[in-house]
Amino acid sequence: MASPKFTAPDGMPRKNEVDEFYDSVAEADLQPLWTQMGIMPETPPLAAIPYAWKWKTLKELAERSGELIPIDRGGDRRVLSLSNPGLAGQPFATQTLWGAVQYLGPGEVAPAHRHTAAALRFVIEGSGVWTLVNGDPVPMAPGDLVLTPCWSWHEHHNPGNTPMIWFDALDLPLVRSLDAIFFENGPDRMVNRAVDPASRSELTFGNGAGLVPFEESEKQAFSPLFAYRWKDTDRTLTTLMKLSNDGTAALKFVDPTRGIDVMPTMRCSMHRVSAGASTRKFRRNGSSIWVTYRGSAIVSIGEDRFHLDEGDMFAVPSWCSFSIEATQDADFFCTSDAPAMEALGLARTEYLD
Amino acid sequence: MASPKFTAPDGMPRKNEVDEFYDSVAEADLQPLWTQMGIMPETPPLAAIPYAWKWKTLKELAERSGELIPIDRGGDRRVLSLSNPGLAGQPFATQTLWGAVQYLGPGEVAPAHRHTAAALRFVIEGSGVWTLVNGDPVPMAPGDLVLTPCWSWHEHHNPGNTPMIWFDALDLPLVRSLDAIFFENGPDRMVNRAVDPASRSELTFGNGAGLVPFEESEKQAFSPLFAYRWKDTDRTLTTLMKLSNDGTAALKFVDPTRGIDVMPTMRCSMHRVSAGASTRKFRRNGSSIWVTYRGSAIVSIGEDRFHLDEGDMFAVPSWCSFSIEATQDADFFCTSDAPAMEALGLARTEYLD
Amino acid sequence: MASPKFTAPDGMPRKNEVDEFYDSVAEADLQPLWTQMGIMPETPPLAAIPYAWKWKTLKELAERSGELIPIDRGGDRRVLSLSNPGLAGQPFATQTLWGAVQYLGPGEVAPAHRHTAAALRFVIEGSGVWTLVNGDPVPMAPGDLVLTPCWSWHEHHNPGNTPMIWFDALDLPLVRSLDAIFFENGPDRMVNRAVDPASRSELTFGNGAGLVPFEESEKQAFSPLFAYRWKDTDRTLTTLMKLSNDGTAALKFVDPTRGIDVMPTMRCSMHRVSAGASTRKFRRNGSSIWVTYRGSAIVSIGEDRFHLDEGDMFAVPSWCSFSIEATQDADFFCTSDAPAMEALGLARTEYLD
Amino acid sequence: MASPKFTAPDGMPRKNEVDEFYDSVAEADLQPLWTQMGIMPETPPLAAIPYAWKWKTLKELAERSGELIPIDRGGDRRVLSLSNPGLAGQPFATQTLWGAVQYLGPGEVAPAHRHTAAALRFVIEGSGVWTLVNGDPVPMAPGDLVLTPCWSWHEHHNPGNTPMIWFDALDLPLVRSLDAIFFENGPDRMVNRAVDPASRSELTFGNGAGLVPFEESEKQAFSPLFAYRWKDTDRTLTTLMKLSNDGTAALKFVDPTRGIDVMPTMRCSMHRVSAGASTRKFRRNGSSIWVTYRGSAIVSIGEDRFHLDEGDMFAVPSWCSFSIEATQDADFFCTSDAPAMEALGLARTEYLD
Questions:
Q1: A touches B (3+ CB pairs < 8 Å)?
Q2: Which end of chain C, N or C, is less packed with Cβ atoms under 10 Å?
Q3: What is the CATH number that goes with domain B51-208+219-351?
Q4: pTM of the entire predicted model
């Protein structure tokens, strides 16, 4: 390992002693703190930058990957990850979150695996796909949020005639930072599996606000409800908007048996902004990825402004100011690392308006 | 205070000393433990007894009270309480729970008050009534559960043409035991109040499983959702029954923001038993009141068996074995003191089949 | 059951109808709410009254019971319970708490039993006694707090030459109200059991603030630490008094593995007031029993004032104002139902100074 | 950003299309998942390696830094960090933890600052130093654990005649991964500050197991007790060893008001192993740093074995098997990221013996 060099200001005889000292330090697999002043900056250093990806490009490339990358070349997880230009070539949207578009063509199957990195899907286009989560078939449709939590088996099936494209988010960078990655491939895929219109998870836990099975099942670290349907999400936003006095409404997706975030590392929420309305400007410690599901808006992230339309995705890095100004009625899906920051005592939020 | 007398077995001279001692003890406002052997029996002593009240009688008397007891004679809370014959004339259904039928005639109003005893309503018959809970108008219809938690203002309005009869339950005996009763009458009643089809509470917290407002409001000791609608309850039971393999299904009503019981002293649940099916036989520490909302059944409580039809109510005392055998498809509303028993470390359940 | 009678003001023909109605109501095991106006008073009705018991009397009668009541006449639990004159002859100090003095003579043994009512001992006089709690021998000495939580086996042994007198408190009235009493006699008593100077419970959990075994044992509803020693209590009060600016200091005894109250139904605390200093005047919902362990004071409870000396005990009923004015440096042990009131959402406190 | 290249196996015409596609993907700031197979390995990849640092070297270099690096060259935080050879020159002991030795000479002061990275000190040698934590002076002595939690002000003072060397640990790599670093320099240092033998924090919260102030202060994310003294730690280990049947004993340092880990990101524990005894062999997800405080041992980490003596430090990376075999009676201080792993639902432990 190279020794960090200390440059004495004057070339005095002590210089050699110091240099020798630094050599000894490096040789002992130590490093002086005082030569690494940048290691604790006053505020989170902007590595990940405010950034947006246009749906037009995402979709074109996803479709093109469908043509070019068959199953035997890796197409069983045909995923294009959002690669934040500030992160030195790493395939991550922010410091803690992976974001991507996944494309599954007609008749294709993404075979079973599981990993400790938690994942979620927010469907943008297509129909007829279902995901098998721990043996429970979960149909997918646009606007739906589908969870495949930490260490849960999952495989994707498209028995239909049209491709599906969805947004994938994982806490992969976070779990990698914690050196906590485990991964396992599943057994051979199933075929000809019949799918009910609702998963067992939904039949058990998705029946209505405050209505849960009388007998409690054992708690896991994540929600036992794996799918949140657009119909319900949309109705809820419509209802909350009635009570709103600033043209914005937002809901949080939670574990219906505990009211806490769906997964311990990722908060999921949906935000509606009426044409002409704006959200409050704030910044928080930790990052998020957003998907413009409907409408269009100007989004301000730090010093940058992005004009966004349906399907466009964007990354909000840690401690960047953030606000949305809708130019048409707009809906946004958001996922963030907020539950992790809160659990670790690190969350802070500052309103700037 | 009378002194408990100790009868010496032999009439020896010591007798007088002991009597004198007991006199001194009583005079000092003390009591010997050893003369009160019954104070800690081996199992909960059966004071409240297994008991059932027939809907036919309840309804007749409720209607009769509507005719005979006008507002100025107490009719502003026209309530007939279930008086368990084991409880020595106290107006309580069990040792910890008050149960009652309340009747509100067309055009009548039960004016505002609040109390630390928590209350709930489960509607049996009628339409058009609404309850104002802390200023939020909550419409009521058959099968609905409506909460008026500890210290929340509530008043009932019947602007329609038909009477309504509902089941009232309170934790009044429990709160009295704790010497924790507070009561306050409200200001003059409102008139001509317009009522939305759903309360603000429902618009905010009742939109769907796992969908809550993004911004958390301050937590209180009880659910912020005040109404659970029969339509949702019925659909949930139907769904859960699909997954059932014994012809029974049951749901618990919970605070949608935390997944815990709706109130810290009262658990609320709804139980469906298919014709010919039976529930498991068990007993638990603590009591409950049940309302037969639909169908008919034979209910075994301790050594007693009751044939029950729609509207019939029954009390299950502490540590009495209990099971339901449906003779027709049947639905039951139940409220119990289970959350209190659990919070105080006293809950125990024993299955007997 | 007798029918509550409605006295019509005018003797009109309707009188009979109403009387008949009330007869029918009573016959159906129902009771009208409107004839029971006192059932929900505006504030907790004063049943238990502010009251004090003098140590001189308590001790004399305890010793006298030692002479007069041998083992075979009930002396195996030679307990004189504080009987609040407001509670109609019930052997309870307050509505929720049992208090008593227990006397165990030299060579005597109180054999094993257990009950769901939780108990605690606060030792006033004597030495050499130990209590076996779930098989763990716990020595007792003046100023010590010893727990025998819900459903834990306990037996008391006095192998020494001097009697011991301690204060007993149980949540018995509360547990009776909940109909949750279970009781079981133990097997034959052990003899010649060697006792270590500290219990296994203390060796495991009593080593110091914030120092617990690395491997967590399964949590129960109560503290795994069964004894809190006077030496530690005294030192803590001395330390806290150094930081105090009003001449008072108070500590709470908690479960060292969770920081919560030692038992879910009873809070335990120790209060020191310097000569001439006073505690704040307040009232709370729920009751407490206090033991003057050292010093003397004037205690104001509601409208009453008591002059108290070492060993004197007193009861503070629900919602009575309360303050202590020390005439000599004074220490008080207190137990209350506060954790139950808090768990059930019923706690309220009002400061009055 | 360079495009990851796909090498077609056959040089067919499609090759150009695919290359063009990859170029487009890279240009759009996207990355294909299927070319990054290593991103989710089956178990945590061994980046940080099992490693040990010898006290002899640490001490020599620390002392040498005291001679060579005066205050104006960075000596106000004279810290040599343990640099794990597997971490590519980063100054971190493991993937989530910073470890270091800090040297403070006689008469020196390390001025006030605070940061969101949480820190702790475990003192190895010296006397007379105190740390000011949020205005509360905390004396330091060998074997003491002193906390400076997230965002708490801290400065170190050595008014004595001898240097002090202590072990520093921070969750810095973890907090950096989360992009949650904040840092602030304090105001000018205080001088001539008188120090009590115990901090206010200890006077308030450090009095004994299960004894806390009666009035609760507001909870923060970390322990209100900032110092855990060797005397107490040693006595606790001695006591726990009496109950041990395998020659090992271990304690966890916890928040005395809640029983949870002292800080949400770092578990602290102390482990005693008798000469000849061994700890169980296990591995866990997440990493730790250990300090040999007393005695000597052979430590097995993964495939490596280290002979360790007093003062030696070592790093246990994620998912490496680990066990200690004491060659003399030995005590170890340990800090790990376990609370973070547990809070995020990622903890897993496997016993291997």
A1: yes
A2: C
A3: 2.60.120.10
A4: 0.93
